[in-house]
Amino acid sequence: MPALGSLLLAAAGLVSAVGPGALASGLEALPAPEETPAPAPAPAPAPAPEEEKPGFFESVRLSGFVDLYASYNANHPSTRDNFLPGTGSTAKKANQLGVNLVAVEAVKDAEPLGFRVVLNWGTATDVIHAGEPTGTGISPDVWEVLQYASIAWKVPGSQLLLEGGILPCHVGAESLFSKDNPHYTRSFVAEYTPWYQAGIKASFPLGAGLTGQLHVVNGWQVIGDNNDGKSFGAQLAYSSGPIDIALNGIAGPELPDDTSHWRAFGDLVVTWRATPSLTVSGELDLGSQSRPGLDAATWWGAFVSARAALSGRVAIAARVERFSDPDAGISGLAQRLWGVTGTLEVRPHPRLILKLEGRYDRSTEPAFDGPVAGEGNESEVLAVLGAVATF
Predict the structure, then answer these.
(1) Could you tell me where the DSSP H helices lie in 164-241?
(2) Which helix (DSSP H) or strand (DSSP E) does residue 349 occupy?
(3) Is the distance from CB of 387 to CB of 353 less than 8 angstroms?
(4) Which of 13, 60, 67, 236 would suit a FRET pair with 118, their CA atoms being 20 to 30 Å apart?
(5) 251 bridge partner residues
(6) Which strand (E) or helix (H) includes residue 29?
(7) Confidence class of residue 57 from pLDDT cuts 50, 70 and 90?
(8) Tally of domains within the chain
(9) Phi and psi dihedrals of 385, rounded to 5?
(10) CATH number of the domain that 385 lies in?
(11) 217 near 231, Cβ under 8 Å?
């Protein structure tokens, strides 16, 4: 404890010598501790750039195809025409190379506004437009290059789709474009139904796999009307898994300058995807045409087709058909037709479709052209090679 006492006495003496004021002044002279500045606030995040919506034409899809064929007809027809007059929407010309169809398509989905335009050239469009009425602004020459031209609008807040213009006809199982069919040539059942129509269509879902369509059109495969009446069409379609079923109908006055005598037509189309490699389709048609001073003419037709894919590049298909027109109501002859078709399909490139086809058709009348003008045959045997390149 003597040492601690000595330290306390020394400290007291130091304070006395310096003086309390000097000590206080010294303490005041010491620098104040620096304050740590508050961190600067983080900068506000930059607003996210607005997502640019594609322009109207940026979502337009362009596509097309070139469809060529070579055909051999054992009848050696003097007209160099295959099939019956008014038919032959593929491989119309006999014993020669031909350009069936060259098409360019522009499509924009209805979101909510869309359109579709298809321009085409070839023997097919010449055949299917041959029945167009003639007059100012209407004739086969006016329309044969323009296959489809339509505007589509999806009504906001609903699933109702409205389309107007030149549209594919809603009846039938086979497409005008051979690339979309299991066979290169088409059945007489398809040839005697409309390929296109001009008017307005409303499409709407009904639930449980059902959809419906309503149509108001100028007439049966005409763009320019041939009378003052209109035709009316409807479709009820069902799709579930491997099965598609469609019931179609169209009715209206179809005779030139005559609105009193109506044509009524209905068909049933069924497609069954039995396995991933086997598809079976069939169609049953029934039509009636009232006639001035005569009983109504009726006709019916049916076909069944099966396509089997042997690999990703090779497929085979077969079709049998029957068509009966006892009153010459649609084909121009009182006749019954039947036919068989076999097709080998090869795709050596994803965008090239080759179809080698053999076909036998027979009528109860000498309806097929023969080697002597004016002398017909009751049957024809065809061999056709079709080639379609898509782009």
Answers:
(1) 188-191
(2) strand 335-349
(3) yes
(4) 236
(5) 232, 264
(6) helix 20-29
(7) confident
(8) 1
(9) -115, 120
(10) 2.40.160.10
(11) yes
